[in-house]
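Quick one:
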Amino acid sequence: MKTMQTNRTASTALIYIILVIAALYTLLPLYWLLSSTFKTSSEAIGYPPSLFPRSPTLKNFGRLFDANNFNFSSYYHSLVISLGAMALSCIVATLAGYGLSRFRFPGKKPLMIGIMFFQMVPILALIIPLYQIFSIYGLYNTHTGLILIYATLSAPMNTWILKGYFDTIPDAIEEAAMIDGLSKTQAFMKIAIPIATPGLSASAIFAFFKAWNEYIVAMTLTSSVRPYTVELYRFIGEQGEVDWSLLGTASFIAIVPIFILFSCAQKYFIIGLSGGAIKS
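Output:
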């Protein structure tokens, strides 16, 4: 008995050690970048590197607000594109997830597999055809073009999330509402969607962050309507030098609001994912 308790304690300690190492491995690069926010340019690239700023400074914020260093409208572009992609992805995924959950039709399983397969296609394999299509139809360098792409990239995963969540809602609830006089559409809008709010919240967060952090598509399909991820590329000089202090400051401004948003909404994200995983 005592040996079993000792083994259990050792296993628990080992798990915590692994988790701490994984957390440090994940957070250290982020800390390193954010610490550069409060370092001078010479200290940020100095050797040996300093873990903490020797002389913390806020001058980098002043330098960043110089229009020659950074275009702050890129944050506006990112916000518009991310919110648009989030809204479109959630609308499409909600309708598709509900249809796959409630209706039976030939080819349903192959369709669901095809939706997930589409999620696995790397965007780099599609970038050249997308560039040609966008150039022909006037979607190049527009908010609409990026919104369509990012919504398409996140909709398959969101469809699976919401399909799983709608599966957990008993049909009897909607049938009872229809007996009371609601139509199928009204039961969907007034009963199913409110109950599925946690799953919808998880889908919205997933779609927003996927669009907010994307770089390759935005770099290829924009020239002036560029999100902040592309604007950060300006800190890489012609010879490959990086102004780490300004890069850290710009990244800090972009990360903090998103970190706060995710911290407030993480419980809905977890509930939505776990709720949709109960039944598929």
